[in-house]
Amino acid sequence: RSDNPNSRGSVSDYKSYTYTDSSGEVEWVYTLYGTFAYVYGTSSTCTKVSYDYSIYRDSWEFSNGSCSRSGGTAYGYGTFKNKIFGITIKTVNIDASLTCDIYGNLS
Fold this sequence. Notes:
This protein is mostly beta strands. It has strands at residues 8-20, 26-39, 43-55, 60-70, 73-84, 87-99. It is elongated, with a radius of gyration of 17 Å. The mean pLDDT is 94.
């Protein structure tokens, strides 16, 4: 990454959300990916966004997955439901974001 004024760059990163049970076993992971272009000190734009998920316990289901981008931010959405005998006992809504500032810093 160049720190020269008005230099152009591209950065990619991801943000993962992990759900574990009370004993620390991973039940599912949701990951948001983003690629960003920036002009140092001037602007940043999300150029590509995607998401992925993995489920490690059969009682969980994932639905309503989507992603979008606006300005220098990538957004990811989805819903995990834990069902036992067809009855939902837990719902976790994902509302994720990944941002690149005008200096190429990701958060």
